[in-house]
Amino acid sequence: MTESLSTLTRRTLDDFVASLPPDQQRTVAEAFADLLASEVAAGAIGVGDEAPDFSLPGVRGDTFNLGTRIEEGPVVLSFYRGSWCPFCNLELKALQASLPDIRACGASLVAVSPELPDNTLGHAERLALDFDLLTDGGNQVADRYGLVMTVPERLRPLYLQWGIDLPAANGDDSHQLPVPATYVIDTQRVVRAAHVEKDYTRRMEPEAILDALRAL
Prior knowledge:
Elements: H1 5-19, H2 22-37, E1 55-57, E2 63-65, H3 66-70, E3 75-79, H4 86-104, E4 108-113, H5 117-127, E5 132-135, H6 140-144, E6 148-150, H7 156-161, H8 166-170, E7 176-178, E8 181-185, E9 191-196, H9 206-214
Parallel strand pairs: 3-4, 4-5
Antiparallel strand pairs: 1-2, 3-8, 6-7, 8-9
């Protein structure tokens, strides 16, 4: 039996935390607890809301417009943090595996991150991702969806130690990221299913996405 996405992400988290020295474990745990207790994403777009329209550049040189794509069928819209995030990579691979079923429902799949196009394109090629990947410079679209969070200052030196240079990856020094979120949007641009989670290790299961699409 194929493991669920939640099982894979939980094991990845446990392995990562176990690899850290005790002082880093404490820093991560404290920052994580603060995030979960915060009001981050409290006003995020949810089920029944109209999905804000947007246009963003694709990493392959095209331009994606939600309103135009909706005319062709429902859209599955996923916001992810970046190619450096192991939980995002597990999600992207799971979405790729489900892409034939998503398309069989007449829907499109698009994933959005603030990462610069060159970084995202190379990553897409390595993972053999065959769906739209968009660059949301400055998290402008994520902000309209109510999803923006800021990496705490105490975590930034650790990110660098782990090889994660957010200013270099995103082209700005804001240290802002989207809260991971997945939306199933119908042809009237209404959100019919949503998964918005401050716990960035938890993502919408592909089967839940397909259930929402089949219910349209």
